[in-house]
Design brief:
60% of the residues lie in helices and 4% in strands. It is built from 84 helices and twelve strands. A hairpin with a 3-residue loop joins strand 6 and strand 7. Helix 64 packs across helix 66 and helix 70 runs antiparallel to helix 71. The N terminus and C terminus are likely disordered.
């Protein structure tokens, strides 16, 4: 064959390439890469299966494998003859050399020629793998069918003349059956044998429903394409019909077909209740099931049609049943949605597409006169017509807009995001402009003109004036916060004004408001209100200007009228007020005038009444909520006209009002809060400042130190200095009150819900008797076919039989996770349900009965008098009583089971009767020698030990032990029992014959083990388990049964759900290299984990039965060690294991749902297990969206390859796991190489392969348009199934015991307690499992725990403003996929994508709830830099939220109280954090102004104003609680108190403070403030990867500096200088205790911001680390390289730090420059305190500015000299530096001698000149585009280098000093890590690389 057919190919091999020096797979090549993974993406589909088959059969026949590879090369050359595809040339080269290498070595085994060889091998393969055998295993069948098809292709290629395909029945069958594979969940095309999942009646009925194509006209196929489809039926079901009609992709059709079948079947199961459907024949799906699904899916479409006054196109043809058309409409929508790609984020755009396609569909199915119709969506040879005609043009628009955004760095107002594009379809203009088919010249498709370097164009692009933003424009300005929450700001401003007016009254009492004069002044608030309304109307016009072109005319008129009317009222109210001053009025007269003579009333009062009339009507409407809700949601033109003035026309955010009960709760919450806040503000912050302010204003001008600061009349400068900080605290301290009230209400709510009822092992023991009953009431479904199990005749069993199976599964999972030991497992296990009923008492788990039998024996031994005392003591403890009875009855049962002979049975009967009679006569103490019972217990222990480990040959031992026991009982214990064994005839044969059949089986072993535990366990098991995590999980699981939850339905009747996890490139599984790789300190991950989790490590070694003591033998178990370590990290394998617990739980519960399970035989149990797996298949789906999986598969990078193999291993380990990824295929076309993208779903096939299920073509790269994570979720969401969807992050975990409660949780979606407002998002609590890693991890764990528990509780249950915060939330899937998905993805603005799904859900009529009876695990960042990156991400996200339309609409459309809730729980928290920091700056700069100007001495030290500052101190002291992080501690303390006890919570609080928690939280306050403010002003928000791993390594000083210099270090230094200046020159109230607390908080702020990164940096104070850090720092600072990374050169980093300034707006730059001018205050003022400058009029005061000019000149000279002389003229450069130094020394000497300069002047000059230089630097950076054109830029850069050098020195010196004390380093290690790790760390250092043998245990 090679000689004949391969000649041309051999020639081609020489022409293509010369032989390389190495061949991949040999030495020097890539030995690890499989050849199937070398296939380029453009050839993967065609060549991959061939090489895979070659690999499979290579061991069987090398020659046939060689022929397969030859065929692969032939096809590769045919597909890409010029090798233009990426990697094609290399792949061909590899195949050529592989073939040339194998040709001489491989001999034929079966024949003399290749043709005969392949034919015989093919015949053998057919006989070996027959279809009837393979069909038993569909996965195996799919694999062998693929190999057979490859062999068939080789056979056709090798023997084209000798092979007759018509006579090969196997090939014909292969062609038909191959189309059935692969499949996802339902093997729809596999007919025989039927898979268990296809035997479910509801699945059968749904399949039959879809296959009903009767009365449908047939699509006419094109003559040229008809021949291609002759082999099979064109239309097999309704989806095939839609595929042929509208040109969808075949893979999309198959995907959505299965999707709809599962939806119909699951809804039918759920609606049908608990009926045993498996017994029903010919089951059909009723029309109401289809109708309910139709209503659910098209709810948004119908609402959209009603909003636009359109008629819905979902129409049923006359005379037709509703089922078939409804299924067609549902299928059409799902197919549109499944192929829409990024357009799925635009739900109304999908409605538009569906509207027209449904019209076309109705036109086809309603035409009954035609049997066939022409296909309008079909193009010859194209399978993606719908994608190309409909989706691609819309996607092109998105792509162009995304390019305009420049990855989100461009201003939001310059490009259209997803919301803008979607809201285009909220107007009827879309129908007028787009039409159908879509007019590609319409405005919607207009794209902006690109720059010259952007040459990529689409064929349909239209370039002219671009379409504007839609409805809303996002601007970077704090004005948007004022605009969004204008009602709140108005309320606080008016309240502040009113309180100041009242306090300014001489009496200062609130009751003075009734005085005419005071009241007349108070009503001026309406003038302020008019002014604020005018500002709001102005903002609406200015900030929304760029969206005006998209607005309807009525909306534009509304904006203009609001502005004009607001301006008119701003003129009318002040004018009428001035005229009313002549007619003073009081409150009584004001109201009395309406009854009396109104003609004499002031016109101002009438104006106010008229002005407030709309607000009065609004308040009245608020009372009648149902009426108002109906009005706002109405689409009537009349209603819209009436509401036209109050709210703009919008499709979303209409009628968002809660029920009356919820309304009253949050109104009461905020009413009490506001009363307390305003009272505190009046009596503490405002009223006490009024008196001192009066005195200050009356003092007149005081003596100034110099004339730089001008005199302000009435000392207004001092008044402003005093009042501004207090006013700032007034506007932010509502956040403090909110935290207080939410903590109290959240604690009460948690307590009332039953949280914390069982929180310790001791409490678990005391409540355990009630747990089985509570379990049955919640987790055991009711059975309609028979009475409840709880109502069975033996009610005394207390439901332990139902409970034990679930409890034991839970305990076994704890053992599998190594949280408990084998002994603890045995103690915790309850008897299985099969062992129940053998005793008359409850068989409790042994840990409840531990030590009870030895204790009872001791009681019996001491009993000397009578039975009454003994009985009383045993009965006092119910567990002791149960243990005694159970042991006695179980021992009798064992003895009866062992005996064969009637005589033996008679002996035991006599003993038993003797005991019974003694008990009845109460003569046990007298009839028995009870002191011998311990000996008898020991004998029974020996017998049980033999029975447990019985093997053949031990019969004699059993008999001897029985005889010994009987003799002891009859001779030593029963006082008169010697006669029991006196029968002489058979005495020697007593108990000699044993029934050995009874000692076999699991039940027997379990019984013996349990009894032995009861007899021998002497110590109390009160602290079993000892592992804290196991204790927490057991107590929470038990506690949850006593919390309110819906009762679980049967698994068949539960709601189906999916779990979706987005994954990019995080850690999948720790490899051996990862675990043993050591850091700088010699610490490996495995070593670290063994010290952090010592008990779990010991349990692990016990589980794998490892007894040896050396590390090398331990490595032989690396396959078990890697998962063990990975399950303790934040890895994908941990997440997958946790989510797959859902499936395991469902299978267990499905089997348990069989009411008569105990009566089933083995075959029936096996059948039940198969049915359980089938039910679990259709109820649960898990999809991991591994975005880069396709690229990792073909990557040559070792890390990517390793990641791919680990994910593949996960799929093979968990067969039901599905992986979705984006595949990038590059292929040659007429226009050159083109990249095509696909959404692909794969599953594991066999042990080492993945199998492609669906491949759906995309219009382009989906992740380059919006944020990557939501785009990653969006592409995979089409592969999810069910009615609910849980979004799980890669750092999360789940637990088996929590998975058991999933049925209960899903019932919340349909719970009647919510009325019509059913939940659309179910929130879950989370447990942070990383809290034990370090002190920082503990801080984050406690903080996050309080947020996801008490925080979410108050948001959901009281305030009704919970959104989507945690990724454990469960979505109503059908609700959200028809409304834009489970997240928003617009670039930058939706950085925090999750919360926007909550916003979207609420605004579209959803309801978000929170439930705490179920939890999932979650990992958090554990290192300082990781945590700071996370906080920066959240702060950036909140900054972008502040600018978003969602926040604006919630702020305007919620009622006033919910608006307050939204503000203070979202962006308001970050704004108030910023204000709290700004307050410190304002306060200190105010002090600086007073000190430097001399006003402090002249006014504030005056005896009349000594007390003026006390109120300000009190106000700022309350604000200090915010800075110190004490507010965050309050909810933490409350939640810990609820769940652990308040004494434990207090202890944790004290420990946290000792671990410097306040330093940590104060530092993170700076992080929040910096990134939130920068995002709003300049943008630059981006996701910062946090690399969630174990941080046990030291971070370089330079890295810390790069991360924190601008956000913390320089700000901290600024505050430090302010404090130093004030300490040096101010002396107002140093002795004040409040002032000391205030300054302490500021000093703590300074220390935290400067040194927290080093305090929490491991090994920071070790001398060698400091030396290395200093060398690294100097290298980084001195590197002047270009085109290097920021961590290599200071210059590159410095430029990158200014990137946000280059992309910001002009007004933001102006603000930056204005703020920078504050640093000039130092030099302007401090210079007057120089001795050399006295008197102040000295010319030297003004000459001081020359110093800064001189510095810039010197820096310029230095920069120029370095560029010109440093390399070539080194001597000249040194001389120049020496001259500069000498000049500086001479200048200083002259100033000391001539100018009377002193040493103190030098330090004062530093305080003055350093800030001035920083000011120049900041202004220079802001003006960089201008300065770069001048010679000044080099000076600015060198000035920046000098300041960074100085800052680094300031930070480094304290660290160096502390490092001299070894105790500091030891203290830091103890501060950061737990004691176990510290001990291990010391061992590691001592051994210094030696093997630590003793640590294995």
């Amino acid at each position: 064959m090679a000689a004949t057919s391969g000649g041309e190919l051999q020639w081609l091999s020489r022409a293509l390439t010369m032989p390389p020096d190495w061949l991949p797979g040999e030495e020097g090549g890539e030995t690890s890469m499989d050849e199937t993974e070398r296939v380029p993406s453009s050839l993967k589909q065609d060549i991959g299966p061939i090489l895979s088959a070659a690999k499979e059969i290579e061991d069987t026949n090398h020659r046939v494998a060689y022929l397969c590879r030859f065929l692969a090369f032939q096809r590769a050359h045919t597909l890409d003859p010029n090798s233009t595809g990426r990697g094609v040339r290399q792949f061909k080269t590899y195949l050529i050399h592989r073939l040339e290498k194998d040709e001489p070595k491989i001999e034929r085994k079966l024949a003399s020629t290749d043709s005969k060889e392949i034919m015989r091998f093919y015949e053998e393969y057919k006989s070996k793998y027959r279809p009837e055998d393979l069909k038993k295993n569909p996965e195996e069948m799919a694999r062998h069918y693929e190999i057979a098809s490859v062999l068939l292709d080789v056979l056709k290629a090798v023997t084209p003349k000798r092979y007759d395909p018509e006579s090969d029945e196997y090939a014909k069958g292969l062609g038909k059956d191959k189309a059935s594979f692969p499949y996802n969940i339902l093997p729809l095309n596999i007919s025989n044998p039927t898979q268990p999942v296809m035997e479910i009646p509801e699945i059968k009925a749904a399949v039959e429903l879809l296959r009903n194509i009767d009365n449908l006209p047939k699509p006419r196929t094109h003559p040229t394409s008809a021949s291609e489809e002759m082999d099979g039926p064109i239309v097999g079901d309704l989806f095939d019909w839609l595929w042929q009609t509208f040109g969808f992709q075949k893979s999309n059709v198959e995907n959505q077909k299965e999707h709809l079948i599962l939806l119909l079947a699951n809804i039918d199961m759920r609606k049908g209740g608990n009926t045993r459907r498996s017994e029903i024949q010919n089951h059909v799906i009723h029309s109401d099931i289809v109708t309910s699904l139709t209503r659910k899916i098209f709810q948004n479409y119908i609402s959209w049609c009603q909003y636009l006054q359109l008629e819905s196109n979902i129409k049923i043809p006359h005379g037709c049943s509703t089922q078939q058309p409804e299924i067609l409409y549902i299928g059409l929508y799902l197919l549109i949605w499944g192929e829409a790609s990024n357009v799925r984020f635009m739900p109304e755009c999908l409605c538009y597409i569906f509207h027209y396609m449904a019209r076309d569909l109705y036109g086809i199915i309603s035409n009954r006169r035609e049997d066939s119709f022409d296909i309008s969506f079909r193009r010859e040879g194209i399978d993606d017509v719908f994608l190309q005609l409909i989706i691609q043009p819309i996607f092109n628009v998105m792509q162009e807009e995304a390019a305009m955004s420049k990855r989100g760095t461009t201003s939001h107002s310059k490009w259209r995001n997803y919301d803008d594009l979607n809201e285009y379809f909220w107007s009827k203009k879309c129908f007028e402009q787009l039409k159908w088919p879509m007019d590609l010249t319409a405005d919607f498709f207009v794209v902006p003109t690109k720059s010259k370097n952007e040459t990529e164009k689409h064929a349909n692009d239209v370039r002219r004036w671009r379409i504007p933003k839609t409805n809303f424009v996002e601007h970077r300005s704090f004005f948007l916060l004022l605009r969004s929450f204008d009602r709140m700001w108005t309320f606080f401003i008016l309240a502040f004004q009113a309180m100041v007016i009242i306090a300014w009254n001489p009496s200062g009492s609130l009751y003075t408001i009734f005085e005419p004069t005071v009241f007349r002044n108070v009503v001026t608030i309406f003038i302020t209100y008019a002014f604020l309304n005018f500002l709001q109307a102005t903002f609406e016009i200015i900030l929304n200007w760029k969206a005006w072109k998209s607005l309807e005319c009525s909306e534009i008129v509304r904006y203009i009228l609001k502005f004009v009317i607001a301006l008119a009222w701003l003129i009318i109210l002040p004018t009428t007020y001035i005229s009313s001053i002549q007619n003073p009025t009081g409150l009584v007269k004001f109201f009395g005038s309406w009854i009396g003579n109104s003609q004499s009333e002031s016109i101002y009062n009438f104006a106010v009444a008229l002005y407030m009339l709309p607000n009065i009507f609004n308040a009245l409407f608020f009372i009648f909520l149902p009426f108002r809700r109906a009005l706002e949601r109405s689409n009537s033109r009349i209603v819209r006209f009436l509401l036209w003035w109050s709210q703009p026309k919008l499709y979303v955010a209409r009628g968002m009002y809660e029920d009356t009960c919820s309304l009253l709760k949050y109104i009461l919450f905020w009413t009490i809060l506001l009363i307390c806040k305003l009272a505190f503000s009046f009596y503490v912050e405002i009223s006490p400042l009024v008196g001192p302010t009066r005195k200050i204003m009356l003092l007149g001008q005081g003596p100034y130190e110099h004339g730089f600061f001008p005199y302000l009349q009435h000392n207004l400068g001092v008044v402003i200095t005093v009042w501004v900080p207090s006013a700032m605290v007034y506007f932010m301290d509502t956040q403090i009150w909110y935290v207080l009230f939410s903590t109290i209400c959240g604690g009460l709510s948690g307590a009332l819900s039953g949280l914390g009822e069982i929180r310790t092992p001791r409490m678990l023991r005391s409540r355990f008797q009630a747990i089985p009953k509570a379990f049955v009431e919640n987790l055991v479904p009711k059975h309609d076919s028979q009475p409840n199990r709880s109502e069975r005749e033996d009610g005394k069993k207390n439901h332990i039989d139902e409970f034990s199976d679930i409890w034991n599964a839970f305990i076994i999972s704890l053992r599998d996770e190594d949280l408990i030991s084998n002994r603890e497992r045995n103690l915790l296990m309850a008897p299985s349900s099969t062992a129940m009923g053998e005793t008359t008492v409850f068989q409790w788990p042994p840990f409840l009965l531990a030590s009870k039998i030895p204790l009872a024996l001791e009681m019996a031994k001491r009993a000397k008098k009578n039975d009454e005392e003994l009985t009383k003591r045993i009965s006092e403890d119910p567990y002791t009583y149960c243990a005694v009875i159970e042991c006695y009855e179980t021992l009798l049962n064992i003895l009866y089971s062992l005996i064969n002979q009637p005589s033996d049975k008679k002996v035991i009967d006599q003993i038993s009767d003797c005991i019974k009679h003694s008990i009845l006569r109460q003569s046990v103490v007298n009839d028995f020698c009870l002191e011998e019972l311990p000996r008898l217990s020991a004998k029974f222990d020996m017998l049980l030990d033999i029975l447990r480990w019985y093997h053949e040959g031990m019969e004699g031992q059993i008999a001897i032990q029985l005889q010994d026991i009987m003799e002891m009982i009859t001779h030593d214990i029963i006082k008169n029992g010697q006669g029991i064994l006196k029968d002489e005839t058979i005495r020697n044969e007593h108990f000699a014959h044993i029934n050995l059949d009874s000692v076999k089986g699991r039940a027997w072993s379990e019984k013996c083990a349990r009894l032995q535990l009861l007899l021998t366990t002497k110590e109390s098991a009160i602290y079993v388990p000892t592992n804290f995590e196991a204790q927490r999980r057991i107590t929470f699981f038990a506690n949850s049964f006593f919390m309110k939850m819906p009762r679980a339905p049967q698994v068949r009747s539960m709601m189906s759900f999916s779990v979706l996890t987005p994954y990019f490139a995080e850690e999948v599984l720790f490899s051996e290299k990862d675990l043993y790789k050591k850091n700088e300190d010699g610490i490996s991950i495995l070593f670290y984990l063994r010290k952090i989790y010592p008990d779990e490590w010991i349990n692990f070694l016990e589980r794998i039965d490892f007894n040896r003591k050396d590390e090398e033998s331990l490595k032989s178990n690396i396959d078990e060690i890697c998962p063990w370590a990975s399950y303790r990290g934040q890895t994908l394998i941990r997440t997958v294991r946790g989510m797959m617990y859902y499936r395991r739980a469902l299978e267990i519960q499905c089997i348990q749902d069989k009411a008569d399970l105990d009566k089933l035989d083995h075959d029936e149990i096996v059948k039940s297990s198969r049915e359980a797996r089938a039910i679990a298949d259709i109820k649960f789906t898990y999809v991991v969206s591994c975005q880069a999986y396709g690229m990792q598969r073909i990557s040559k990078d070792h890390k990517d390859r390793d990641c791919y193999l680990k994910i593949l291993n996960l799929m093979t380990t968990y067969p039901s796991l599905r992986v979705a990824y984006i595949d990038e295929v590059e292929a040659p076309t007429d226009n050159g190489m083109t990249k095509t993208y696909y959404s692909v779903l794969v599953k594991g096939a066999g042990r080492k392969y993945d199998q492609e299920i669906y491949r759906i073509k995309l219009p382009g790269e989906p992740t380059n348009i919006g944020e990557r994570k939501p785009e990653n979720q969006n592409h995979a969401i089409i592969f999810t199934r069910g009615e609910a969807l849980q979004a799980i992050d890669m750092n999360q975990d789940n637990y088996l015991e929590e998975a058991f409660k999933m049925r209960n949780l899903l019932e919340e979606f349909e719970s009647e307690k919510y009325g019509k407002n059913k939940p659309t998002i179910l929130g879950l609590r989370e447990h942070i499992f990383t809290g034990s890693v370090s002190s920082l991890a503990r801080f984050m764990s406690i903080q996050d725990t309080s947020f996801v528990t008490i925080g979410q509780r108050i948001l959901a249950n009281v305030l009704k403003v919970r959104f989507h915060y945690g990724h454990s939330d469960i979505f109503d899937r059908l609700f959200h996929i028809t409304r834009g998905g489970i997240s928003k993805a617009s670039k930058t603005i939706n950085l925090s994508e999750g919360i926007f799904s909550g916003f979207n859900s609420i605004m579209r009529g959803g309801n978000v709830t929170h439930h705490e009876y179920m939890q999932v695990g979650k990992g958090r960042d554990v290192g300082m830099n990781q945590i700071s990156s996370f906080e920066a991400n959240v702060a950036n996200g909140n900054g972008e939220q502040t600018l978003s339309r969602d926040i604006y609409r919630l702020g305007h459309r919620f009622d006033f109280y919910r608006m307050l809730s939204v503000y203070f729980t979202t962006v308001g928290f970050y704004f108030n954090s910023m204000v709290s920091v700004l307050t410190v700056y304002v306060f200190l700069y105010g002090r600086l102004y007073l000190v430097i100007s001399g006003l402090e001495k002249s006014i504030l030290l005056d005896q009349h104003t000594q007390e003026n500052i006390k109120p300000l101190e009190r106000a700022l002291a309350s604000e200090s609680f915010f800075q110190l992080g004490l507010l965050l501690v309050l909810p933490m303390f409350m939640e810990a108190g609820l769940e652990k006890g308040f004494s434990t919570a207090l202890g944790e609080f004290v420990i946290m403070q000792l671990q410097l928690a306040s330093v940590f939280f104060t530092f993170q306050l700076g992080t929040k403030t910096h990134y939130y403010a920068r995002t709003i002003l300049h943008g630059g928000a981006k996701y910062r990867p946090t690399s969630s791993g174990f941080v046990v390594c030291h971070t370089k000083f330079a890295e810390n500096y790069r991360m924190y210099s601008r956000s913390h270090f320089f700000k901290g230094l600024e505050l430090l200088i302010l404090l130093v200046v004030y300490l040096a020159y101010g002396s107002t109230y140093d002795s004040s205790s409040l002032y000391l607390f205030l300054t302490f908080s500021i000093w703590l702020l300074v220390v935290s911001w400067l040194f927290a990164p080093f305090i929490f940096n491991p090994s920071c104070f070790e001398w060698q680390k400091i030396v290395d850090d200093w060398a690294d720092w100097k290298k980084w600072m001195g590197n002047r390289g270009i085109a290097v990374s920021v961590d290599q050169s200071w210059e590159v980093w410095w430029e990158s730090e200014q990137e946000h300034l280059r992309k910001t707006s002009i007004h933001a730059l102006v603000l930056e420059i204005i703020l920078s001018l504050r640093f000039l205050i130092y030099q302007c003022g401090i210079v007057y305190y120089l001795n050399i400058a006295h008197p102040g009029e000295s010319i030297l005061v003004y000459a001081s500015w020359l110093v800064m000019l001189l510095v810039l000149v010197v820096l310029k000279m230095d920069s120029t000299a370095q560029q010109k002389f440093r390399t070539d003229l080194q001597l000249m450069f040194r001389i120049l530096k020496a001259l500069v130094f000498l000049g500086s020394v001479i200048a200083m000497a002259v100033l000391f001698v001539v100018g009377n300069l002193t040493i103190s002047d030098v330090f004062v000059s530093i305080l003055g000149f350093v800030p001035t230089g920083w000011c120049i630097l900041l202004i220079g950076q802001a003006c960089s585009p201008l300065l770069k054109r001048t010679m000044l830029w080099d000076s600015i850069m060198e000035l920046g280098r000098a300041y960074d050098n100085m800052m680094g020195l300031v930070l480094f010196l304290p660290i160096v000093l502390l490092s001299w004390f070894p105790s500091v380093s030891e203290f830091q290690t103890r501060l950061l890590f737990n004691p176990g790790f510290i001990q291990g760390l010391q061992i590691s250092r001592i051994l210094a690389g030696q093997r630590d043998i003793g640590d294995i245990e």
